[in-house]
Design brief:
The chain is an all-alpha fold. Helix content is 67%, strand content 0%.
Length: 110
C-alpha cells in the first residue's frame, strides 16, 4: 500500500511540473476575463435591440449580426475553458463569422 501511495504522489508532483497545464491556466484566466467582458457587451446589445424594437418596430440587423458572432465567440471560449476544445478562440483565431451555422426558427427574418 505504501508504494502505491508514493507512486501517486510522484505522479502528482510530475503533473504539477507540467508547463503546458500552467500555460493553459493562463489562457483560461485570459478567456475568463474576455467572457466577462463579452457578457457585458451582449447585455448592451440586447438593451439596444430592445430600444430599436420599441422605437422603430424592428430590430437592427447589424446588431443582430454582431450578437451572432459574439455568441459564437462566447461558445468557443467556453469550449476552451471547459476543456472541450484545445482551439483557442479570438484573439488567437479569427473573429467568428456572423453567418449562421444552424438555422433556428427566428433566423428566418434575413
Amino acid at each position: 500500500m505504501q508504494t502505491q501511495n508514493s507512486l501517486d504522489q510522484d505522479d502528482i508532483h510530475n503533473h504539477m511540473r507540467n508547463q503546458q497545464a500552467w500555460l493553459r491556466l493562463l489562457y483560461m484566466l485570459l478567456f475568463a476575463a474576455l467572457l466577462n467582458l463579452a457578457a457585458g457587451v451582449m447585455w448592451v446589445i440586447c438593451l439596444l435591440q430592445f430600444i430599436f424594437v420599441v422605437t422603430t418596430g424592428e430590430d437592427n440587423s447589424q446588431l443582430r449580426s454582431f450578437a451572432r458572432s459574439l455568441s459564437q465567440f462566447i461558445h468557443r471560449a467556453l469550449l476552451f475553458v471547459s476543456y472541450n476544445s484545445d482551439e483557442k478562440p479570438f484573439p488567437f483565431a479569427p473573429w467568428p463569422n456572423p453567418s449562421p451555422t444552424q438555422q433556428w426558427p427566428a433566423d428566418n427574418r434575413d
